[in-house]
Write a structure and sequence with these properties.
Layout: E1 6-11, E2 14-20, H1 24-35, E3 40-43, E4 54-56, E5 59-61, H2 74-114
Antiparallel strand pairs: 1-2, 1-3, 4-5
Length: 115
């Protein structure tokens, strides 16, 4: 769930400003009113971009020309964490079983030495 949507106001292939706005039409209108009719808004709620970064063909780049990738959403992070937890549980179960088998072998050796 997103509490606020963040928009980049784009003109001349650059992020000229960033704003918080509820809808695309409102953000886009603000872009056009403040930066000219060729300006437009792009949602950046999950994209760590800022003023001065470039925007071309749907891709943001920082001032050094590096592509700026979107951050994972909360839902994506939960999915990854659930997968990692399932893997950790499998590894833990395997370690417990291996430990029990090893303990059994140790017990057998200890008994054989006592006889």
């Amino acid at each position: 769930m997103i509490a606020q949507r963040i928009w980049a106001l784009i003109a001349e292939n650059k992020v000229q400003n960033t704003i918080v706005c509820e809808t695309y039409p409102a953000a886009d209108e603000l872009a056009k009113l403040t930066l000219g009719t060729d300006a437009f808004a792009v949602e950046i709620t999950q994209i760590p971009t800022g003023i001065g970064d470039s925007y071309e063909n749907g891709i943001f780049k920082d001032k050094q020309g590096n592509v700026i990738n979107p951050l994972p959403t909360a839902e994506q992070e939960v999915t990854v964490l659930k997968s990692e937890l399932a893997t950790a549980k499998e590894i833990n179960d395997t370690l417990i079983i291996d430990n029990l088998a090893m303990q059994s072998q140790i017990d057998d050796i200890a008994v054989s030495l006592l006889v």
